[in-house]
Design brief:
This protein is an alpha/beta fold. The chain has one domain: Vaccinia Virus protein VP39 (Rossmann fold), CATH 3.40.50.150. It is built from nine helices and seven strands. Helix 4 links the parallel strand 1 and strand 2. The chain is globular. The N and C termini lie far apart (45 Å). 39% of the residues are buried. The model has no long low-confidence stretch (mean pLDDT 93).
C-alpha cells in the first residue's frame, strides 16, 4: 500500500494536471503498484522499482493523456504495446466509463494484466495477446476505436503503422513520447491517413522528466496495404 505521504504526493501531482482523484481510485492505484512490484521480482515488467518513482514515472505519466481525451466522444480506447498496463490501466481507473483494450505481444505480460484487472475488479477492460501488426488486421479490432494510445513503444514513423490501423476514421491516435523525435514521420502520416492536430512538450509535475504528447487525427479509412506483416514496419519504416 502507498504511504500517507505518497498518497498526498499523488493527489497533489494529479491536481496540477487538473484531475481530482478519489480515495477509491487511490486504493486501486496502490493495489496496482503492489502487484507491479511483486510480479517484477520474477519477470521483467519495469526498471522502476521504487514506489515514489512508480507514482511519477508510471501513474502520473499515464494520467497526463486524460485532458487530451474527449470523454463525450471516447467510448472505446486501445493501448498498443501496453507492457505492464501503461497508460491503459491508469486511464481506466481515472475514467471508468471508457471501454479499454490492452494489447501486448508477450503472453506473460498479458497474464499480469489479467491479474491486475481481476484484483482491482475493473470492468469494461480486456487484455489481448497479439502483435500490433496482427491485431491491426483483425476485423474485430481494425478501425474500431475512438482513441488509440501508445507510450514510448517506437519512433513515430513505426509507431504510426502499429497504431493507426486500430483508429476509426475521425478518431485519434495519442502518442506519448520523450522530449524530441529523432526521425521524420511525414511520409508515415500521408500513407496512414494521419494529420497532427497538436503537439505539446511539458515536464512531469514534481520531476525534471520531459514528456511530449502528439495527437494525430485519422482523416480517412486506411489502405488495406497497412499494417504490413509482422516485423516489416520495424525493419523497413515508412
Amino acid at each position: 500500500m502507498l504511504s500517507l505521504e505518497l498518497i498526498e504526493f499523488f493527489k497533489t501531482t494529479t491536481a496540477k494536471l487538473g484531475i481530482e482523484i478519489s480515495d477509491e481510485q487511490i486504493n486501486k492505484f496502490s493495489k496496482y503498484g503492489d502487484l507491479l512490484l511483486e510480479w517484477n521480482k520474477v519477470m521483467n515488467l519495469t526498471a522502476v522499482c521504487e514506489e515514489r518513482e512508480v507514482v511519477i514515472k508510471h501513474f502520473v505519466d499515464s494520467i497526463t493523456i486524460v485532458p487530451y481525451i474527449d470523454v463525450q466522444k471516447c467510448k472505446k480506447i486501445a493501448d498498443i504495446g501496453t507492457g505492464a498496463g501503461f497508460p491503459g490501466i491508469p486511464l481506466k481507473i481515472i475514467r471508468p466509463e471508457i471501454e479499454v483494450v490492452l494489447l501486448d505481444s508477450l503472453g506473460k505480460r498479458v497474464n499480469f494484466l489479467n491479474t491486475v484487472i481481476k484484483k482491482l475488479k475493473l470492468e469494461g477492460i480486456s487484455a489481448i495477446h497479439a502483435r500490433a501488426e496482427d491485431g491491426g488486421r483483425d476485423k474485430l479490432l481494425r478501425e474500431k476505436f475512438d482513441y488509440v494510445t501508445a507510450r514510448a513503444v517506437a519512433p513515430m514513423n513505426i509507431l504510426l503503422e502499429y497504431c493507426m490501423p486500430f483508429v476509426k476514421k475521425g478518431g485519434y491516435f495519442i502518442a506519448m513520447k520523450g522530449s524530441s523525435e529523432e526521425v521524420s514521420y511525414e511520409k508515415a502520416l500521408r500513407e496512414l491517413s494521419g494529420k497532427v492536430e497538436s503537439e505539446d512538450v511539458f515536464t512531469l509535475p514534481e520531476s525534471d522528466i520531459t514528456r511530449r504528447i502528439v495527437c494525430v487525427k485519422k482523416t480517412d479509412f486506411l489502405s488495406t496495404r497497412y499494417p504490413r506483416k509482422a516485423g516489416i514496419p520495424k525493419k523497413n519504416p515508412l
